[in-house]
Every structure is written in C-alpha cells, then in structure tokens.
Amino acid sequence: MSAPDSALLSTRPDETPQAGHGGPNWLRVMLFAAVGVGTLSIVATMTGSGELTSSGTFSAALRLALPILLAGLGGLFAERVGVVNIGLEGMMILGTWFGAWGALMYGPWWGVVLGIAGGAIGGLLHALATVTFGIDHIISGVAINILAAGVARFLSVIAFTGTGGGATQSPRVSSSVGRITVPFLAGGDVFGFSTPSLFGALDRTPIPIIKEIGAFGLAFTNNVSMILVIAVALVPTTWWVLWRTRLGLRLRSVGEHPVGAESLGVRVYTMKYIGVTISGALAGLGGAVLVLEAAGIYREGQTGGRGYIALAALIFGNWKPVGVLMGAGLFGYANALELRSGESVHTLLLYVAIILAAFAIYRFVQSRRPMSLWPLALAVIVGWSYVITESVPSQFVFFTPHLTTLVVLAFFSQRLRPPAAVGKPYRRGQQQ
Amino acid sequence: MTIRGAVIRIIASLGAIAFSFGVSAIALLLVDVSPAEAFGAMLSYGTRIDSMISIVNRAVPLYMSAIAVAVGFQMGLFNIGVEGQYRIAMLIAAYVGAVVSLPAVLHVLVILLTAMATGALWASIAALLKATRGVHEVISTIMLNFIATGLGAWLLATHLREEVEGGLNVRTATIPESGHMPSLNPMLELFGVTVPGGSDLHGFVVIAAIAGTAYYFLIWRTRVGYDLRAFGVNPGAAAASGIGLKKMIFVSMAISGAFAGLVAMGPILGFYHRYSADIPIGLGFTGIAVALVGRNRPIGMAAAALLFAFLNRSAQILDFRGIPKEIEVIVSGVIILTVVIAYEIARRVVMAQQVRDAAAQLHQADPAAEQEVAK
After folding, report:
1. What is the mean pLDDT of chain B?
2. Closest to B139 (Cβ–Cβ): which among A149, A393, A409?
3. Cβ–Cβ of A134/B136 closer than 8 Å?
C-alpha cells in the first residue's frame, strides 16, 4: 500500500515557533488591522475609488465571506482532532442541496437545520472512513467530494424535476430567515421607535479612517441576516469551546498527541468522530447559507470550490478561529470588489504594492538581513503593473484569492503551526 | 503467500464493487425503479460494439490522468493538480498544433511534446513551492488548479482564440490534417469487427498503451522509479541512503505533470482537433479515483478506467427509460470509497496472516523465540 505519508516528506524545518495557545495576540492583531485599514482608507481617498471602502462593499464582502468562514471553522474542528478534511467541498454541496430542499419543504429555518444535518452526514462518513477504517484522509475526502456531487445530482432529479427545477437546480427558494438592524449602532427600531444610527453618522463624515469605521460597522449591524449574526458569533464560540472547555482540551489533545491523550483516558476515536462530524455540520451550514442568503436557489456547482478556499483560509489563519475569520474576510473582500466594481480591483494593486513594501521594510528592520527584502521585488512588480495597466482582467480577479494563498504560504509557511498529529493515521492502542 | 494476498485483494475489490451496486440498488428502489431493469439495460447497452468503442475512448483520458496521479502516489505525493495541468496543457498544445505546419507524424509529435512540457512546467511550480518553501502540495496544487482555469480563460480570450469576423468564440483554430491522429477503425475491421457508422476508435489508445508501459518501466525498472518508491515507503530511510528529497520532488512532479499534459490529447487529436469548451473537465479528479481503485498498477488502473467508462457510457441508456442516469455517479462514488476501505481491510487481514505465519514458523524452529515475538 502506498499510503502517502506527506507529513514525513515535508521539507519544513522541525522547529516549533510557538505553542498554540489559541487566543490571538489581540494587541498585535488590532495594530495590524488598524494599519491595514488605515492604509486602505488613504489609498481609497487618494485615488478617488470610494467603492474600495464603501459600506456596500464591506457588507457584500461579509456576505461572500460567510460560507467560507463557516466551512473554514468546520475545517478547524476536523484538523484540530487530527483529521485533514479535504471533503469540505462535498459536505458543503450536501449542505446546499439539503438546505434548499429543507427550505422548500418546511421553511427557511428547516433549510438551515437540514443543511447542517446533510453536512454532518458527510462528516460522519469521513470519520467512518478515516477513523474507524483508517484510510488516508485525502483519499477519503476526494471520494466524498465525488460522491456528494453524485448524490446531489441524483436527489435533484428525484426531488426537483417537475416542480420548476431540474437535474441541476431547484425551484426558487424565496423564503429567507429574518434580518435585523441593531438599534443605536445602525439605527434599528426599538419598540417601534427608530433610534439614531451611530455608524451611519460616522459613515457620512468625510474624514478618512473614521468614515471607514462607520462603513465597516454598518456592514455588521445594518439589515444583517440572522445567519450572519450566528456565524460571526460562532467565531468566539469556537475559540471558547476549543480552548476554554474540557471537551475542547480533549479534542485538541487528540490532534496534537493521540497516544498521549489515550494514555490519559481520552477516548480518541470518540473525540475524532465528534470533531469531524461538527466539521461536516459547519460546512453544511456554509452550504445552506449559500442557498438561503446568497443565491436564493440551489444550483449544481454552486459551491464553486469554496470548500477548498475554506481550507486555504484555515491554513492562512494558522488553525485559529480569528485567523479563519480574517482569511475568509480577505477572500470575501476580493470577491466583493470583483463583483461590485472591476476598476477598484485595479486600485487594490497599488494597495497590495504598498503593503508588500511595508512588510519587506518591517522585516528588514527586525532582522537586518538583506534577504528579507525580497518581497520588495514583488512590490515593485505589482506597483509597476498598477502603473502600466488600466484595469485587471476579470479572469485574473477570479483567481486572486488562490494566488494570494500561494504567496502567503510561500512567505509564511515556516511560521504556521498545524496541529502536530494532523493527517496521521491512528490506531487504538498503537505505540509511538 | 503473496498469491494468497493477491486473491484476498481481488476478492475485496470485487466485494466492494458488489456492495456499491447494492447501495445503488437501494437508491433505485427508493425511487420505485427496478434495479434489475436498470442494471440489465446498462449491461445490454454497454456491451454493444459502438458502446464498447466509446468506452475505450472514454477510458483513455481517465487512464492517462490516473497514471499522472499514480506517479505522485508512488512517492507519497498527492498531485491534486492534474486537473489544472491538463487544462493549461491542452490549451497551449492545441494552439501550437494549429499554428505550426509540419509533416504528418512530426506534427502530432510536436503537439504531444508541447502538451507534456506544459504540464510538466505547471506541475513544477508546486514542486518549487514544496522544495524551497515547504508549501504542502495538496494546497498548492488545488490553488494552482484555480489559477490555471483563470489564466487559461484569459489566454484564450486575449491571445489564443481563433479570430473570426463578428464572433466571440471560445476555441482555438483547427489543427490541420497533418496534426490529426488516425482512427483505428481499419484495424478493427481487419479483425472482422463491423464498426457501426459514427463510431470511431481513436488512435490515441496506442499512446495510452505506450504510456502505461512507460509508467511500468519507469517505476519498477529504473533507478528513478526505485528512488521514488523508496521515498513512498520510507522517507527517512530513503533520505539516509543519500537520495536527494528536493530533487525527487521535482522529478516526480514533472513526470506526473508530463503525463497529465496528455490527458485530453486523445479527444483533441482524435475528435475535436482544437481546444473548445466542449472538452470534458474534471478528468483530473476522476483520475485520482481511477488510480486509487487500480492501486497504482498499470493493469489495475486500465481495468478501473474501463469500469468507470463503462458506467458512464452505459448509463446514457437509462434516460430513455425514464430512469435517472445520475445513478451512475452514485455507483462510481460508492465504489471509490468502498474499494479503498476494502483494500485497507484486506491489508490488515494479510498482515495479521503474515504475523501468524511468522509466529508459526518461529515456533517450529525455536519455541523460546516465539515468546520473544509475542512480547
């Protein structure tokens, strides 16, 4: 058997940069975010592309980031218990189908529930294959992706033909879960009385950065879907469950050191089953969101590789909930800009060039090694292409997230820290 | 003992295939279709002459894709990027084929070499990222698939598409006659097979057979193949014996990409004669499945490719009988998962057997030593 043990083939050095305590280093995160958004705001003002930081763009970004965020959190649960979940895509597909079907049959909230259940079934299957039968995680994931597409197709033929849908799409799902506007922050109603809108007022000011804070805040508070509220709340919840509860400690211990965990009485198989099933459930919710929030219909191929992007966001975010949120947000933002205004993507090139240059200088100041200046070359290339081109071809915008992932991995893969035992098969009672 | 192991594996895979049909039968029963009728119709339609020719034609790209994946597997590398490698390679090769004019055989050769070189180059990006920056190949090849799709679309729209008055077509110009591969129908007729009209056995089958043989010799009869397998079985030992890991990452990804470049060449050289949007996509992912089911063996993968092609072709008849032909996807999906599980179980059975045999032999030779083994 050519069980590919890619972990052993990694050329990555063995050093462990930091023990992942899970909690983000808030101060640094906030600082980087402030610098990033501030620069973006200045670029937007200087070049006059207001779309770059408008509240419309931010809320579109959030909406587009949502499925990726949910699937990414799903990936987090699986990889934290040591199972690579490349089947996220398939589980999302199951989520889209069952989400649409549930919404059509019983109403939108049942769509959410059945979407979660559909994804969870995919997760359970993945757990059965990888944990009980011990087959390679990637192989099982690939098989689940193929199987899920087939199942969705077959079920569509049975359930949707003759009802206004067909083999590749459902009838329109018109019902939607509720939306809310937060009082005082975005001017929502309280007992029928309208309240002032803090973020709205900020958004209308002409001052850079303040304006962006308003726009950003509006995206999270003005006329947002209930699912969005739940999904954003899931980020701290995931962190709390995994890093602050007994169950979370057990789940993570299984992904770091299953033999040690078992010797301490942790039921490794049970923990892996729990993690991978939750993973499928979250991916399924991500799929349901696509149908219920974004498209209003189930369509074949609707997930469009978002399961894979979620995997990228997970790695990007260094296997931490806030990191996943930031990765998903970045992809959502690039996607939103592409949809809303192609020319602002062009302005984004200037922004990327500035950030790359700043990053290179920051590293140089820290390490004083000329080698750390090489992102500068990239900055020059990106900056140059901003100057000589008028617009970015839409085909290039399509793969921006994927290219970003590759570049980020090329820069940072040495500093990322995956769970120690991720991807490794584990048999009960095995020794080191 | 190895014969017994082989028998156990074959029984396991047949059992898994039977199980898959069982699951699909249940799915059919749930929608009030008689499984016997459905599978009977598939069998009788799938064994017609024109169907069999179509099955072979359909199996060829799957087989090429499986070989590409298998080269990586031998070293423990997952080349999920076959999809992107063949997409970009077929576009470039079809364009080059339409632009150059060369004598017949040479023309085909140039197209094939272009495809292989493009595939190898594209795959080398993932090798570069892995060897120099430690980026896992599964992630990088997935991302490169998307990039290949976008880049291909852009190249086609701006540089490579056929210029036609007033049309926005998404295809390259036609490859001239000298760059076509001949049909093998005359050979079939030589063997007394009457080929129905409209059926056409593509000449690329020969290339696929050569590729399968080349794969066999490369992996099991050359130094490079030995090194690849050494890394696949025991990376630590391979590195200790002085095989360069980084070099082997490049070698295996480049060879894998070269095979991947040929995936869509059968349909292009034998039928479409250009790059167009009609050429099937997703072959890279199916190739992973074929390689898994065929256990990375040249013959095994050929059998698996034919099996999937048979399911694909024979299911076409079901639509005419009002049965959802999508049952085919379920059959193949379940086959992939259960065959892999069956192999794993078979492996454990064989291993347990070997341990027992070894213990028994030791017992005959030296009962005291058996106690040691038991510990």
Report:
1. 87
2. A409
3. no
Q: How far is A161 from chain B (nearest CA, A)?
A: 11
Question: Which of A79, A142, A315, A424 should be substituted to probe chain B, the one whose Cβ sees the most B Cβ atoms within 10 Å?
Answer: A142
Residue in the structure block whose two tokens are 């699909």: B24
Chain B: closest CA distance from residue A13 (Å): 9
Burial class (CB in 10 A: 0-12, 13-18, 19+), B294: buried
Q: How far is B66 from chain A (nearest CA, A)?
A: 14
Q: What DSSP element (H or E) covers B67?
A: helix B49-74
Our CA-based measurement puts residue B296 at a distance from the nearest CA of chain A, in whole angstroms, of: 9
Per-residue confidence (pLDDT) for residue A10, from 0 to 100: 42
Whether residues B337 and A147 touch (CB distance < 8 A) is answered with yes
Residues of chain A with pLDDT under 70: 1-26, 29, 49-50, 175, 208, 341-342, 414, 431-432
Q: Best interface-test mutation with B: which of A84, A126, A138, A147 has the largest number of B CBs within 10 A?
A: A147
Nearest-Cα residue of chain A relative to residue B143:
A402
Q: Cα B340 from chain centroid?
A: 16
User: What average pLDDT score do residues B325-346 get?
Assistant: 84
Q: A-B interface: how many C-beta pairs under 8 angstroms? A: 174
Q: Per the CB < 8 Å rule, is A398 touching B153?
A: yes
Q: Can you give the pLDDT at residue A3?
A: 40
Measure the CA–CA gap between B218 and B224, rounded to whole angstroms: 7
Residue pLDDT, tens place only, B356-371: 888 888 888 766 655 5
Beta bridge partners of A299: A169
Query: How far apart are the CA of B308 and the nearest CA of chain A, in angstroms?
Result: 13
User: Looking at A21-30, A223-232, B42-51, B187-196, which range is the least confident one?
Assistant: A21-30
According to the 3-state scheme, what is the secondary structure of chain A? CCCCCHHHHCCCCCCCCCCCCCCCCHHHHHHHHHHHHHHHHHHHHHHCCHHHHCHHHHHHHHHHHHHHHHHHHHHHHHHHCCCCCCCHHHHHHHHHHHHHHHHHHHCHHHHHHHHHHHHHHHHHHHHHHHHHCCCCHHHHHHHHHHHHHHHHHHHHHHHHECCCECCCECCCCCCCCCEECCCCCCCCEECCEECCCHHHHHHHCCCCCHHHHHHHHHHHHCCEEHHHHHHHHHHHHHHHHHHHCHHHHHHHHHHHCHHHHHHCCCCHHHHHHHHHHHHHHHHHHHHHHHHHHHHCCCECCCCCCHHHHHHHHHHHCCCCHHHHHHHHHHHHHHHHHHHHCHHHHHHHHHHHHHHHHHHHHHHHHHHCCHHHHHHHHHHHHHHHHHHHCCCCCHHHHHCHHHHHHHHHHHHHCCCCCCCCCCCCCCCCCCCC
The gap from C-alpha A17 to its chain's centroid, in whole angstroms, comes to 24
Distance from C-alpha of A245 to C-alpha of A243, rounded to nearest angstrom: 6
pTM score = 0.86
In 10 A of CB A428, how many CB atoms?
12
Q: Do B76 and A393 touch (CB under 8 A)?
A: no
Quick one: tokens of B125? 């990006």
- Rounded to an integer, what distance in angstroms lies between the CA atom of residue B325 and that of residue B316? 6
The per-residue pLDDT for A182 is: 75
Inter-chain residue contact B289 with A142, CB threshold 8 Å: yes
A366 or B15, greater pLDDT: B15
Q: Which residue of B has its CA nearest to A406?
A: B140
Residue linked to tokens 């995956």: A418
ipTM over 0.90: no
Could B153 and A86 be called an inter-chain contact, meaning their C-beta atoms sit closer than 8 Å?
A: no
Rounded CA separation A421/A257 (Å): 6
Task: Report the distance separating Cα B44 and Cα B254, nearest Å.
Answer: 42
Cα angle B307, B308, B313 (rounded to 5 degrees) comes to 100
Residues in chain B: 375
